[in-house]
Design a protein that fits this description.
The structure holds two protein chains of two kinds. Chain A is an alpha/beta fold. Chain A has helices at 4-8, 31-42, 66-74, 99-102, 110-116, 140-173, 191-220, 334-345, 355-363, 366-369, 403-411, 413-416, 429-440; strands spanning 16-21, 48-53, 92-93, 128-129, 229-236, 239-244, 249-252, 254-258, 268-274, 279-282, 290-292, 298-302, 308-314, 326-332, 393-394, 399-400. Chain B has a single domain, classed as Cytochrome C Oxidase, Chain A (Up-down Bundle). The chains are: A alpha/beta, B mainly alpha.
C-alpha cells in the first residue's frame, strides 16, 4: 500500500482517514503514517484526513481513550476534504463500509474495494491485562481464591476493628494525669474473660480451616476432563519452554489457550517441570502460583474466561534474571486458537530468498542451543525458534518483538538481559544481517 | 593498648558482653539498612538502572541474612545476657567464658559474611557475596548454579555466628534453672526471663536442622554428595523442609524477645501487673511447641498433597491463637491503668497496633489458596517486615529506651526519642502499608526491576520515600545514644518506678550486681517493698 505504484492506482475521490497513536512502535511512532499521508496527498487524493493521539499506542480502537477514537471515526466527514488542523492521529487506515452512501454511483474496482477493506489487522493486539490484580479473577482457580479471601479478610477486619478499637479507647480513656501518683487497682487476671478469648479464637480458626480445606481440595483434586488441553511447561533460567504434546507444538514464553465460555468450557491442564532450578508460574488473574521444581512434576489448571493477554512473572527467585522471566498467557477464541496451533505445528517456513541467512544460522553455533523445525537445528538449551516471529516479545518478555529489537538481541543479548545464558555470539555485521533476516522469516 | 579497651576485649562480665552484643547488632542493623535503602532506591522507578542485577541480588541476600542472623538473634543474646542474671538476682551467667566465646564467634561470623564482598573471586570469576536469597533454596546453591564461593560464605558465616546464639541459649537455660536467688521459684520469675527461657529452648531445638542442612549442602558442593542436587536425583524440596523447620521457629525466636520487652514495659507504664501471668507463660510455651509444626506454610506452592496442605493450614492458624491471647493480655493490662506515654511505652503502643495487623495478614497467608496467590510476592515481604519491624524492632527499641538508663546510668532524651518514634512510624507505614498492595497487584519478590504499566510504579515510589523517614528516625536514635552516654540526665537506680530486681541495684550495676543476694516473695519484689500494705504475695 505504501509504494508509488499501488498508491497511483487509488481513485482520487476515495476519502482516506488515518487514526494513529504517537507512541506506537510499529511505524515507528507517527513517522510512517505521516509519510504515507503525504504520499496520498501527493498522488492527488482529495480527502486525506487524520487524528494523531498523544500517548496512544498501536491498537487505538481499544486504547484508554477508545471512546474518543471511536467518536472521531464515526464523525469522519466523508463528504470531502476535512481540515487537518488537529495533528492527532490513530495508527491504522480504516475505511468505513458506509462509504457506500457518499460514493453511490462510483465504480468500485476490485483493487479499490480491497484497499477500502484493508485494515492493519489487530493481530495479537487484543487487550493486554497488564495489571495482575488477584482480586479481579478471570478463571475458576483465581475466583475460588477470591471468594475464600473475602471470607478470611472479613473475619480479619472484624478482629482488627474490635481489638484496635479497644486499644484506641484504652489509650485515650486511661491516660494518666500529670501529678497523679496513686496506683490504680492491681488486677491480676480474670479466668472467665481469658477462657472466653481463648475459646472464641479457637472456633474462628476451626471455621476458617474448614472453609480453606474445601477450596484446597476443590482446586488440587480437579480431574482433567477428557477434552482438556494438556500443556507441559518447563522452567529454564530465565525463560519458559512450552510444549503441547498432543498437538506437536513447542514454543516459548507465551502460552496460548482457548477461552472458556459457558457454552463451550475449555480447561487447560499444565504439567510444571524444571530443567535447572526452582521457578514458579504465576499469572494472578488466572490462578495462584505453583512451583516448577527440578526432579518433580507439579500440576495446575486454568480456564480463562476472557480473551486477551494476561501478564505474569516467575515467582521463585531463580538467579540473576529472575526479574525478567516474564510470562504471557494469550487467551483466544477457539477459532483463533486453532489457527495459531495450525501455524505452530507445521515446520518452520523460511523464505527461499534468504538462504544465505539460513546457511549462516545453521553453520554458526546457533544450532547448539536452538531448534528450528524442519532443519538440522535441533538444540534444546535455548528457546525453540521455529515460529519466533509469531511471538509478542523476545527474551521472555523483556523486549517487544520488533525488527530493531530482534537485531539488538542477536547482536548482543547481554546488553538487554545481562547474565542471561545466551552469550554475545560476536557476529560480524554481514552474519548479523543474514541471521536476522532468516529469523525474521520464521513466522 | 588502652586499659579500658583491653578490659572490654577480655571481659566475661555478662553486662559488658550484653552491651557488646547489642552495640554490634545495632552496627549490623545500620549496615543492612543501607543495603535496603539501595534496593529501595533501585525499585523506586520502573526499569531502574541504579543497581545492576548481580549487585541487587547480593544486596537482597546479605540484607536478609544480616537482619536475621546478625541483628535479630544477637539482640536476643544481648538482652538475655544483660538482664537475666539481674532479674533473677544472680551474680553472672552460669558460664561466663562460654558467654564471651559466643560473642566473639558471632562477631567473627558477621565479619566473615561481609568479608565476602572483598574476598578473592572464586571459580569462573563469579561474585563472592552471597546472592542466593537469605533462605538459599536448592538447587540454586549447588555448584552447578552457584559457582564461586558466595554460597560457602553464606553457609560458614551463619554456622559460625550461630555458635554464639546457641551458646547464649544454653547459658540462659542453665542460668535460669540453677542460679535463681532465694524465694524466686520458677513461677515468680519475671515474664522477661520466662520468655527468654522459651526462646533459648527454641534456639537449641531449631538451629540444628539449619546447621545440618548447611553441612549437607557443603557435602554436596565439595564432596560429591547429592542431598539437594536434583541433577543427580537429589531433592530440592528436602532443603525447604530442613530450612523451614528451622525457619519458622526462627521467626518466633526473633519476635519473642520483643514480647519479653513489651511484657515488662507495659505493666510499669500502666501501673498495673501483667494481666493473666500464668496464661502469658502458658501461651508462650504453646507458641514454642506449636511453632515446630507449622513450617510447611512456607511451602504451600511446592505442590504437596491436599491433606498435607490442610494440616499446615490448621497448625498455622492454631499458633495464631496463643499469639492473639498475648495481645489481649497486654491490652487488658493497660485497661484500667494509669498510662504514661514515655518513649518506651510509645514504642509498645506502636508494637501492639502493628503486630496485630501483622498477625492478621499472617492468618490471611495461612489460608493456603490465598497463600498460592500471595506467597513470594510483595504481600509476604510487607507481612514479615510488619512482624519484624512493626513488631520486633519497635518492641526492642522500647526495651532499649527502657533499660539504657540501667546500663549506662544516664537517661536518653525524651524529645529525641519521640522524634525517633514518630519518624519511624511515618516511614514504616509509608513503606510497608503500600507494599501489601504491590503484592496484591502481582508484584513478585526479589526482582531487581519491573516494567511500567503493571500498576506497581506509584506504590514503589511511595515505599521508597518511606525509607528516608525511617533512616531519619534511626539517625535520631544513634544521635540520642551518643549524646546521652556523654551528657544524659543521671538516671538513679529506678527512673521508671518499676518492680523487678534489676531496678534494685545501681545504674550501672556494680560488677557483682547485688551486694547482698536478694530474697523475694512474689513476682514483683520491688512492688512489695514499695507497697508493704498491699504486697503481691498476698494474691499470688
Amino acid at each position: 500500500m505504501a509504494g508509488p505504484g499501488p498508491i497511483g492506482r487509488i481513485r482520487d475521490d476515495l476519502p482516506i482517514y488515518a487514526s494513529s497513536g504517537s507512541e506506537d512502535s510499529v511505524g515507528p511512532q507517527l513517522g510512517g503514517v505521516r509519510v504515507l499521508l503525504e504520499q496520498y496527498r501527493a498522488a492527488g487524493i482529495h480527502s486525506v484526513s487524520h487524528d494523531f493521539h498523544p500517548d496512544g499506542r498501536h491498537e487505538m480502537l481499544n486504547e484508554t481513550n477508545r471512546d474518543e477514537v471511536r467518536a472521531k471515526l464515526l464523525n469522519w466527514d466523508l463528504s470531502g476534504s476535512r481540515p487537518n488542523k488537529h495533528h492527532r492521529t490513530a495508527l491504522f487506515t480504516y475505511v468505513r463500509r458506509s462509504v457506500k452512501r457518499k460514493l453511490s454511483g462510483m465504480k468500485f474496482s476490485l483493487r479499490a474495494f480491497n484497499l477500502c477493506l484493508s485494515l492493519v489487522t489487530l493481530g495479537a493486539a487484543q487487550s493486554v491485562h497488564s495489571v495482575g490484580n488477584i482480586f479481579k479473577p478471570q478463571a475458576t482457580p483465581a475466583e475460588s481464591v477470591y471468594h475464600l479471601s473475602m471470607l478470611v479478610m472479613m473475619v480479619c477486619a472484624a478482629i482488627f476493628l474490635t481489638v484496635a478499637g479497644l486499644l484506641t479507647f484504652t489509650i485515650i480513656r486511661f491516660r494518666g494525669k500529670a501529678g497523679d501518683d496513686r496506683e490504680p487497682a492491681q488486677v491480676y487476671g480474670s479466668d472467665r474473660i481469658e477462657i472466653a478469648w481463648t475459646v472464641i479464637p479457637i472456633l474462628i480458626v476451626l471455621v476458617l480451616t474448614m472453609a480453606t480445606a474445601r477450596v484446597v481440595i476443590a482446586i488440587q483434586n480437579k480431574q482433567a476432563p477428557k477434552d482438556a488441553l494438556q500443556v507441559t511447561v518447563i522452567g529454564h533460567q530465565w525463560w519458559w519452554e512450552i510444549r503441547y504434546p498432543d498437538l506437536g507444538i513447542v514454543t516459548a514464553n507465551e502460552l496460548h489457550v482457548p477461552v472458556s465460555t459457558l457454552a463451550k468450557p475449555a480447561v487447560t491442564f499444565l504439567k510444571l517441570q524444571s530443567a535447572d532450578v526452582a521457578h514458579s508460574f504465576w499469572v494472578p488473574q488466572l490462578s495462584g502460583k505453583t512451583d516448577l521444581i527440578p526432579n518433580r512434576t507439579n500440576t495446575m489448571w486454568i480456564d480463562p474466561r476472557q480473551e486477551g493477554t494476561f501478564l505474569g512473572n516467575c515467582a521463585e527467585y531463580c538467579g540473576m534474571q529472575h526479574a525478567n522471566m516474564l510470562l504471557r498467557v494469550i487467551v483466544q477464541s477457539p477459532a483463533e486458537f486453532g489457527k495459531w496451533a495450525a501455524s505452530q505445528e507445521r515446520n518452520a517456513l523460511g523464505d527461499s530468498h534468504i538462504d544465505a541467512g539460513r546457511v549462516a544460522f545453521l553453520s554458526l553455533s546457533c544450532v547448539n542451543c536452538h531448534r528450528v523445525s524442519g532443519t538440522p537445528a535441533v538444540g534444546t538449551f535455548g528457546p525453540d525458534l521455529s515460529h519466533v516471529m509469531s511471538r509478542d516479545t523476545l527474551g521472555a518478555g523483556v523486549i517487544r518483538n520488533t525488527p530493531e529489537n530482534l537485531r539488538a538481541w542477536v547482536k548482543d543479548p547481554q546488553v538487554i538481559k545481562p547474565g542471561n545464558l545466551m552469550p554475545n555470539m560476536q557476529l560480524n555485521s554481514v552474519e548479523l544481517d543474514e541471521v536476522v533476516a532468516y529469523l525474521s522469516s520464521l513466522k | 593498648m588502652p586499659s579500658k579497651l583491653h578490659e572490654w576485649i577480655v571481659t566475661v562480665d555478662h553486662k559488658r558482653l550484653g552491651i557488646m552484643y547489642i552495640a554490634t547488632s545495632l552496627f549490623f542493623f545500620a549496615l543492612a539498612g543501607v543495603l535496603a535503602a539501595l534496593m529501595r532506591a533501585q525499585l523506586a522507578f520502573p526499569n531502574g538502572t541504579l543497581v545492576p542485577p548481580a549487585v541487587f541480588n547480593r544486596l537482597l541476600t546479605v540484607h536478609g541474612t544480616t537482619m536475621v542472623f546478625l541483628v535479630g538473634m544477637p539482640f536476643f543474646a544481648g538482652l538475655a545476657n544483660y538482664l537475666v542474671p539481674l532479674m533473677i538476682g544472680a551474680r553472672d551467667m552460669a558460664f561466663p567464658r562460654l558467654n564471651a566465646f559466643g560473642y566473639w564467634m558471632f562477631l567473627f561470623g558477621g565479619l566473615l559474611l561481609y568479608f565476602s564482598y572483598i574476598g578473592a573471586e572464586g571459580l569462573a570469576g563469579h561474585g563472592t557475596a552471597p546472592d542466593v536469597g537469605w533462605f538459599a533454596y536448592a538447587p540454586l546453591t549447588e555448584r552447578a548454579f552457584s559457582r564461586g564461593t558466595s554460597t560457602d560464605y553464606w553457609i560458614l558465616s551463619i554456622i559460625i555466628s550461630g555458635i554464639g546464639t546457641t551458646a547464649s541459649a544454653i547459658n540462659v537455660i542453665v542460668t535460669v534453672i540453677s542460679m535463681r536467688c532465694k524465694g524466686m521459684k520458677l513461677a515468680r520469675m519475671p515474664l522477661f526471663v520466662w520468655l527468654m527461657l522459651v526462646v533459648s529452648a527454641m534456639v537449641v531445638m531449631a538451629l540444628p536442622p539449619l546447621s545440618a542442612a548447611q553441612i549437607m549442602l557443603l557435602l554436596d558442593r565439595y564432596l560429591g554428595a547429592h542431598f539437594f542436587d536434583t541433577q543427580a536425583g537429589g531433592s530440592a524440596v528436602l532443603w525447604q523442609h530442613f530450612f523451614w523447620l528451622f525457619g519458622h521457629p526462627e521467626v518466633y525466636i526473633l519476635v519473642i524477645p520483643g514480647f519479653a520487652c513489651v511484657s515488662e514495659i507495659i505493666p510499669v507504664f500502666s501501673r498495673k501487673p501483667i494481666f493473666g501471668r500464668a496464661a502469658m507463660i502458658g501461651a508462650t510455651v504453646a507458641i514454642g511447641m506449636v511453632s515446630v509444626s507449622v513450617w510447611a506454610h512456607h511451602m504451600f506452592a511446592v505442590g504437596m498433597a491436599p491433606s498435607s496442605n490442610i494440616f499446615f493450614v490448621g497448625s498455622t492458624m492454631l499458633v495464631g491463637i496463643p499469639t492473639g491471647i498475648k495481645i489481649f493480655n497486654w491490652l487488658a493490662t493497660m485497661y484500667g491503668g494509669k498510662l504514661r506515654f514515655d518513649t518506651p511505652m510509645l514504642f509498645c503502643v506502636g508494637f501492639l497496633f502493628q503486630f496485630l495487623i501483622a498477625g492478621l495478614t499472617g492468618i490471611m497467608l495461612a489460608a493456603a489458596p490465598l497463600n498460592w496467590q500471595l506467597t513470594d510476592s510483595y504481600f509476604v515481604v510487607a507481612h514479615f517486615h510488619y512482624t519484624l519491624i512493626g513488631g520486633m524492632l519497635f518492641a526492642l527499641f522500647g526495651g532499649l529506651y527502657y533499660w539504657f538508663p540501667k546500663a549506662t546510668g544516664k537517661m536518653l532524651s525524651e524529645t529525641l526519642g519521640k522524634c525517633h518514634f514518630w519518624l519511624l512510624v511515618i516511614g514504616f507505614h509509608m513503606t510497608f502499608d503500600t507494599l501489601h498492595f504491590a503484592g496484591i497487584l502481582g508484584m513478585p519478590r526479589r526482582i531487581y526491576t519491573y516494567a511500567a504499566g503493571r500498576g506497581w510504579e506509584g506504590l514503589n515510589l511511595v515505599a521508597s520515600i518511606g525509607v528516608i523517614f525511617q533512616a531519619a528516625g534511626v539517625a535520631c536514635l544513634i544521635w540520642n545514644i551518643i549524646r546521652s552516654v556523654r551528657k544524659g540526665a543521671p538516671a538513679g537506680n529506678d527512673p521508671w518506678d518499676a518492680w523487678t530486681l534489676e531496678w534494685a541495684t545501681a545504674s550501672p550495676p556494680p560488677e557483682y550486681n547485688f551486694a547482698v543476694e536478694p530474697e523475694v516473695r512474689s513476682s514483683r519484689p520491688l512492688w512489695d517493698l514499695k507497697h508493704p500494705e498491699d504486697p503481691d504475695w498476698k494474691y499470688e
